[in-house]
Amino acid sequence: MSSRFLGSDSSCCDICGFPVLSRSVIRELECLASGARSGMSLGQVFRETERERLEEFPALLVKSELLTKRDLKLAIQQLPHRPAGASESATELVKYLVDAGFLTAWQCGRLLRGMYRGFLFDGLKLVDHLGHGSKTSIYAAEQPIVRRRISVVIFAPAITADRAAVSLIEKRLRIISSLDHPAILGIHHAGWFEGNFYYTRPYVDGCNLMQFASASGPLPCALAAAIGLQIIWIADYMSKRGHFLSVKPESVLIDTNGRVRVGGTGLTRESVGGHKRGFEDSPPEWDASGLAAVLHLLVAGAEEGQAGDAGLTAILNTRDSDGLAELIRGLVPFEGSRTWTLDGARRVLTEAVRRPI
Questions:
Q1: Burial classification of residue 85, based on how many CB atoms lie within 10 Å of its CB (0-12 exposed, 13-18 middle, 19 or more buried)
Q2: How far is residue 236's CA from residue 56's CA, in Å, rounded to a whole number?
Q3: Per-residue model confidence as pLDDT tens digits over 185-226
């Protein structure tokens, strides 16, 4: 992360309002996020592959159109050594193609399961599967000429068959495209391909907060607060424009620099009443319980953390030595006597991020 975002004496820097975090917090987040980065390893591919599939690999590769026969022949000639057996030779070929950057481990994994279709999507080359939900599947893709990596979000057939659902998605994509914030993933393109509705957005080298919590285990209060402050930074930007940031561990990403990024059609929904609420009258709503649940997930770990209202209830009933439960109790409304505002949440998390790691 750029040094202009570093510091320890205040909650926000002068550039874009990014939360100022100490170097030790940044280093810890970078280390944890890099370790949690999702992706299939080549060792995992070979463990899941039968000998017969290895022997079929060259033919499947040509059928996939990921490499031409000529490119494959040149690649075979570049092998450091050629084992006598067909499966051993294919194993060396797979290793070489991945090491040389011709293929990814995910592509090889699919080919070695006999799945050679579906790598080319509307002029893009799919290189990895990043995740999926009930409505979408998300892939990393490469633009062929410039070789830029982007993300492709493809909607499930049940969604694309529903005209009302597609209309709502298009409306939300237009809202996201109108936002200009360094942590909000914009929209490159949206359209249809072979009956599939999809859109593309910037690629994030990292993982979502659910994957992060699963890999990192329970976090110290200061690190959880550092992530929470970045979420508040984004929520504040959106609320001032009459939009609602939906905070879910599956839709909030953290990159290998420890920076939080958000995107997708679940990012926003219309404000109450279908219009922008005047900030001077009452602040636009924001997902306070969603943030509390994410904080609980981060400090309790993926096995203990609970989403939504259950996570909020759990953190309020937690007795911890780190002080996050007490911190949240001071923010969450009790019998209407307190309001968890964005400014209030920012102040408390700013105090929490200064605690020892």
A1: exposed
A2: 54
A3: 999 999 999 999 999 999 999 999 988 998 888 888 889 889
